[in-house]
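Q&A log
Question type: sequence-to-structure
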Amino acid sequence: MIDLRYHIASLVAIFLALGLGVLIGSTMVSDDVMVAQQQKMIDRLEEQFYALRDKENTLVAENEKSKKIIDNYENFSQSILPQLVTGRLVGTQVAVMVTGTEDIPAGMLNAFSLAGANVTSKTVLLPNISMNDANIRNNIIKYYGLDSGANRDVMRQKVAETMGAVLSNQADPEAVEFLEQNNLVKLNGNYNVAVSAVIIVGGANDLTVYFPDSFDRSLINSVAAAGIKAYGTETSQVKYSYMSRLQQNNITTVDNIDLGPGQISVILSMQGEQGDFGIKSTAKKFMPSLPVESTRR
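Response status: OK
Response body:
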């Protein structure tokens, strides 16, 4: 759409230039042939301009129609979501960890509530994880006993391992205090409850905070060592996806957690079927198979 508008703007500029050329040519040189040729060129450009304008109008109409269809599908998904997820995870303790730039989708939390799961904590990874602050780097080197030349990926891995211990209720108070004092994470909830699942909300809109390899995958390994399953999720419109990176850890992924189908997928996958679900090229299947009994309710 942007390229089309740029093309139209270019044609308008050419119209103005040719019009000025015709005016100057007609006043300075009485050359009817030249004026006629310029007029033909203007006529052709004018035809292109109107054709492009019509094409843009058609594309706008098609986009609006497509958006309406998508909105209707989402409304339908949300209307059937309660029937598909209610009561499926009763008593399940879940921790949510935001490692990307997107907020926790409200629809995801609502789906967990309907399913009967208890979200015990909501943790947000903060921008300091980029390790751009020399003081933060020095603090991490000192706290973990790293070599002075340790690279930032190693530092992030150490923080991820500590965060994994926090989520699995295996970290000492000093570690929690260290993470908070250095503004590496924002903690919210009860971290003294044993959880059976960690939901990672990844995906970034800025490459300066894109760390699925050094942070997320280390976090997954850390909670897995404690016997806790991790599920990788992100929203459908995030610019830089984490899915292909997290799938290397052989965990279930859902790439449209902001939408009804994605919220249904994460609940059903926690109940049984594992896989890579969603709408992006990294997904192997749109959704888990719907349980037969759900169609009989």
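Response note: The beta strands are 93-98, 118-125, 185-186, 197-201, 229-233, 252-254, 276-277.
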